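Reproducibility note. Readers wishing to regenerate the assembly model reported in the main text can use the exact inputs given here. Chain order matters: entities are listed in the order in which they were concatenated for prediction.
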Amino acid sequence: MPIITVNNLIKKFKSLTAVDDISFSVNEGEVFGFLGPNGAGKTTTINILCTLLSPTGGSAVIAGHDCVGRPDQVRALIGLIFQDTTLDTGLTAYENLRFHAYLYNLDHKLTGRRIDEMLAVVELTGRKNDLIKNFSGGMKRRLEIARGLLHYPRVLFLDEPTLGLDPQTRNTIWEFINTLRKREKITVFMTTHYMEEAENCDRIAIIDHGKIIAEGTPAKLKEMVHGDIIRLVTEDNARAIAEIREAFGIPAKEENGGLFLEVERGEEFIPRLLHGLSVRTRSVNLQKPTLNDVFLKLTGRTIRDDVLTDDKETTREFVRSHRRAQR
Amino acid sequence: MIQFRPIYVICLREFIKFFREKSRLLGTLARPVLWLFVVGNGMGSLIKPQAGFSYLQFIFPGMIGMTILFSSIFSSISIVWDREFGFMKEMLVAPISRLSIVIGKAISGTFISVAQAVIILVLIPFLGIQIDFTQFVEVIAVSILVSFCITSMGILIAARLTSFDGFNIIMNFLVMPMLFLSGAMYPVTSLPPALRHLTQINPLTYGIDAFKHVLLRNGTPPLGPEFPLMLDLAVVTAISLVMITLAALSFRQKE
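Running the prediction on these inputs yields the following structure tokens for the assembly.
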């Protein structure tokens, strides 16, 4: 049974339509992700669901309570972790959590125990009485997760939960979220523009210009894009191209000093490929389709337009231009 | 709908932060001392004592009013800080009424201002004023009323202010004129008519006049109180109620 039901939701800011007639539902216990570039309408949708904004049209219902009509009932059921930190940096970790417990009317006897429990989960027990202004970005985010879960919400909203954090901290935070999710059976609704992060979701809706353009499991979405890309650097690329065409009947393209070929099940193909080549190979790189490729296929744009530097990114760039040409 | 636990914890947060920020406490105490003993003595040499009160004694009620003005505005403008640094969201998504947030902010701002007004009273022995216990209680009662009024006004402004850039405008075009047009440093009846009308719509004028009634007992204009005490209390109470209602209403709106 769905815990979040959104029907024909519209939000307009003057002439800008931030959310353009979207409908979706999220099942209880599921991790549901909104993936899309900045400005796609992800945060606006979250703000409507958590009662901070009124929609221009349509409806949003959480656990049977209407987000517009019964905001107090909705608020008691949800926990939020925002894009930017919402901790009071002038207070200690304990004081921030106690403030939250009082706002959510947690039982007095339960408060102290619950705070200790949550601090232990996010491994901040030793920092309980330290001021937040002395915390690192990762520690703040962990404390916010502890706070968001303090009142045992049924739905946890994560708006870009790991934005601006280094990959290591990002992984740690996802370990926390996954552990907690198994223990508390909560539903998670998250937004992100990191494809790696979206992989953690059970189901994803890809959103662009306020509209949902695709929805499904990560695996299912990636099936929309066919084939793996192998990047190969050899001592004699021209000869390698000829040999590959001869032995496997696959056209390879040369670009930026490397060879690119598109195959099914790349990991199985690589041993055969190396065995079949007489030229010496300097490096091999396998690129599986990502959700970004799905986004690219659907919109013709990438989610992030970062500077591309290393080999892996060169491969991605090739994949992009290659797929663009295919369409 | 008023909920007591959220109001309690919102107040608690403000008190913890107030006592933790020593510089803020020091600043609010240094300002009246500077005014009293530097400006008070400097100007005092020009103005003769009248009806038994010196200029230094005359500006003391005004200095209590000034302390409350700055403290209350600072407390309520902290809402803009909360919004800028995101903490306001933590309160807005919690299952508490907007009215509880406004009441919590108003009560905490009031108490912090009253605490500072009381601390200023330690200067009394240096001014040659004597107050008895009844006057002490009356000062606290007037302080609560004036602090609540100014804090509510500040909350109303803070609810409308979208960024912290507006703070300087508020300080220069509202707080400073309110202080100068309040009778804190000179009797308002001696001002030209145009300015005198401005003092009449300033709640601080009546607040400071009430302090004069309490502290400069038996004083007469120009250095004593200028309006009847009942008028002072009635005006401050009325403005307080209007301000807190408007503040609560403007907090209810969302996009």
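We highlight two features of this model. Residues 228-326 of chain A form a domain with the Alpha-Beta Plaits fold (CATH 3.30.70). DSSP finds twelve helices and 14 strands in chain A.
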